[in-house]
Amino acid sequence: MWRAAAESIGLFLLPFVLFALYLALRLRYPLALEHWTRGRVATLILAGLAAALIGMIAIVSTSPRGHGVYVPAHVENGVLIQGHIE
């Protein structure tokens, strides 16, 4: 669960990091408020949401799915049988 949340947050923040890197490479101070106008921030938010959504869809569509039914650990004839997928 934490991994999925961290990946989504990372993908959302990626456009902001790339924009700050772009400003730094152009020798501008990335933390100056004049570079972070409402229009740019709105565009970065939309790009971040799109990246997070596409990332979640990619993760869900490429993740392996279990085949069968999970049988939890149980005791048969005094012997512990580990949980497994049948």
Kindly estimate the percentage of residues that lie in beta strands according to DSSP: 5-15%
Helix content class: 55-70%
Number of helices: 2
Largest sheet: 2 strands, antiparallel
Cα distance spanning the termini: 25 Å
What's the helix-strand series? HHEEEE
Structural class based on helices, strands and sheet pairing: mainly alpha
Q: What is the topology, as strand order, of the major beta sheet?
A: 1-4
Low-confidence stretches: none
Overall outline: rod-shaped
What does this structure look like?
The structure is a single chain. By secondary structure, the chain is mostly helical. The chain has one domain (2-71). It contains 2 helices and 4 strands. The protein has helices spanning 2-25, 38-62; strands at residues 70-71, 74-76, 79-81, 84-85. A two-stranded antiparallel ribbon has the order 1-4. The protein has a two-stranded antiparallel ribbon with strand order 2-3. The longest helix is centred in the middle third of the chain and has 25 residues, at 38-62. It is rod-shaped. The two termini are 25 Å apart. The mean pLDDT is 91.
